[in-house]
């Protein structure tokens, strides 16, 4: 059996995806999910969004827009597990289990928290002014997202590497404390896609909402065209040669074109294509590449209840993994059903019964005998001699049949009788209590397993 690589990533639902998000994260994630070796878990990190945003309408709109964007972009929900973090109650529950083992000192070192503290100190404020427990615990919630599904690879931006490392740290600590040699959690690795270019925005700096230099993705063709018209270029007139390598307009073009298209565009720029026409070409290209997806996006946005159904189905898939796993973790930390204690005893018994074993052997005189060893390898019985293997086998069978044992103690030993004859003897134990313990072990060993 080959195990597929589990790839998991979350998208914080505070904004509307723009062209930079699409080229830098969404498109590569959708492509990666098509690899037959990939088992992708992609989710809307809407609990994380609450940490950064207290505007309910914005949260709600962003969740829908992001969900529709990924689906319109071609994410195949049959193939991947696509869900909302807030639809998985196991995640906040796991967050608490992890919070109880996460070192406060570790979280003190989180970049985002430290940056807020530094800012406060600089401003002469209380170090923790305006800092919520949500911000402080952000990495624990993220660790739960990742560890809940035992992700191998976590594609993230550079700013999130530390969080993935913290997930490892916290997961390891939990494994160590409660695993009893078992590794509950897989150690995740951050996956930084070096090859994926961060797109430049209108002004040439990285495209980012915080710079207000983005090109909208699916809102409308007109919005896209308007934004493209605002791309900053040099002031070379039509007919003058343009330098494609110093033009972020060209970089944007290249991110969506085939190499052949890019080569042609390059030579046209070198030959003096005007910037107005160049912007037109970029728009034509983006519209051809994204027009159909834009259509799908608007269809999805127009049917929020369909979107709801898709995400709920995703949550069912995710919970099929999360629910049994969380039950195991609850067991591990001691949050166990009282009623289940009886069952635990029964399983132990069953295991002992399974593990106890008869070993038959032949004496020099040709007779057949057997020993019964307990689960721990202690000798419980040594049989008398039988003329043939068949007779010895018949006795071991009868002993395991579940019938009432005719057990007769003699000093610190005991014998087992069948049909009026002693068929096997225990060793001579050190004292009566050792003998009685062996009798108990024998009864467990001979209890037929109940499945
Ligand atoms: N913190 C991530 C970001 O801002 C989003 C996120 C939440 C995430 N949970 C995650 C990413 C788990 C990867 C894995 O980008």
From TrEMBL:
L-tryptophan binds at residue 145. GO terms for molecular function: ATP binding; tryptophan-tRNA ligase activity. It comes from the Bacteria. InterPro entries: aa-tRNA-synth_Ic, Rossmann-like_a/b/a_fold, Trp-tRNA-ligase, Trp-tRNA-ligase_bac-type, Trp-tRNA_synthetase, YegP-like_sf. It is an enzyme of class 6 (ligase). One of its GO terms (biological process) is tryptophanyl-tRNA aminoacylation. ATP binds at residues 12-14, 20-21, 157-159, 199, 206-210. Pfam families: tRNA-synt_1b. Keywords: Aminoacyl-tRNA synthetase, ATP-binding, Cytoplasm, Ligase, Nucleotide-binding, Protein biosynthesis. A motif ('HIGH' region) lies at residues 13-21. A motif ('KMSKS' region) lies at residues 206-210. Its main location: cytoplasm. It is found in: Cytoplasm. Its EC number is 6.1.1.2. It catalyses: tRNA(Trp) + L-tryptophan + ATP = L-tryptophyl-tRNA(Trp) + AMP + diphosphate + H(+). GO terms for cellular component: cytosol. Homodimer. HAMAP family: Trp_tRNA_synth_B. PANTHER family: TRYPTOPHAN--TRNA LIGASE, MITOCHONDRIAL (PTHR43766). Catalyzes the attachment of tryptophan to tRNA(Trp). Belongs to the class-I aminoacyl-tRNA synthetase family. This is Tryptophan--tRNA ligase. The gene is trpS.
């Amino acid at each position: 059996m080959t195990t597929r690589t589990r790839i998991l990533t979350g998208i914080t639902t505070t904004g509307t995806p723009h062209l930079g998000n699409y080229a830098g994260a969404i498109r590569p994630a959708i492509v990666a999910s098509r690899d037959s070796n990939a088992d992708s878990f992609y989710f809307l990190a809407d609990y994380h969004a609450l940490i950064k945003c207290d505007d309910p309408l914005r949260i709600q709109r962003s969740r829908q827009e992001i969900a529709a964007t990924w689906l319109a972009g071609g994410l195949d929900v049959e193939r991947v597990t696509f869900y909302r973090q807030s639809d998985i109650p196991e995640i906040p529950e796991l967050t608490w289990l992890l919070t109880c083992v996460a070192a406060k000192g570790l979280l003190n070192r989180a970049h985002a928290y430290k940056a807020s503290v530094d800012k406060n100190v600089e401003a002469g404020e209380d170090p923790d002014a305006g800092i919520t427990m949500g911000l402080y615990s952000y990495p624990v919630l993220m660790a739960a997202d990742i560890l809940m599904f035992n992700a191998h690879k976590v594609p993230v931006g550079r700013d999130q590497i530390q969080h993935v490392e913290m997930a490892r740290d916290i997961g390891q600590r939990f494994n160590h404390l409660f695993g009893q040699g078992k590794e509950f959690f897989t150690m995740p690795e951050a996956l930084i896609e070096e090859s994926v270019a961060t797109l430049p925005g209108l002004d040439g700096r990285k495209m980012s909402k915080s710079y207000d230099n983005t090109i909208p993705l699916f809102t409308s063709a007109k919005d896209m065209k308007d934004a493209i018209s605002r791309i900053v270029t040099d002031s070379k007139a039509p007919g003058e040669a343009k330098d494609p390598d110093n033009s972020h307009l060209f970089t944007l073009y290249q991110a969506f074109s085939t190499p052949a298209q890019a080569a042609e565009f390059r030579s046209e720029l070198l030959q003096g294509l005007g910037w107005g026409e160049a912007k037109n070409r970029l728009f034509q290209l983006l519209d051809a590449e994204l027009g159909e997806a834009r259509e799908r996006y608007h269809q999805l946005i127009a049917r929020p209840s369909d979107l709801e159904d898709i995400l709920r189905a995703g949550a069912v898939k995710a919970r099929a993994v999360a629910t049994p796993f969380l039950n195991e973790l609850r067991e591990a930390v001691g949050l166990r059903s009282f009623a289940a204690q009886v069952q635990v005893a029964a399983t132990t018994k069953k295991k002992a019964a399974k593990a106890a074993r008869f070993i038959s052997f032949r004496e020099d005189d040709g007779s057949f005998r057997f020993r019964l060893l307990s689960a721990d390898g202690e000798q419980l019985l040594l049989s008398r001699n039988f003329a043939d293997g068949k007779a010895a086998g018949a006795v071991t069978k009868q002993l395991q049949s579940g019938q009432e044992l005719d057990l007769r103690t003699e000093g610190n030993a005991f014998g087992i009788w069948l049909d009026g004859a002693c068929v096997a003897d225990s060793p001579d134990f050190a004292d009566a209590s050792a003998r009685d313990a062996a009798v108990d072990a024998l009864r467990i060993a001979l209890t037929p397993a109940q499945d």
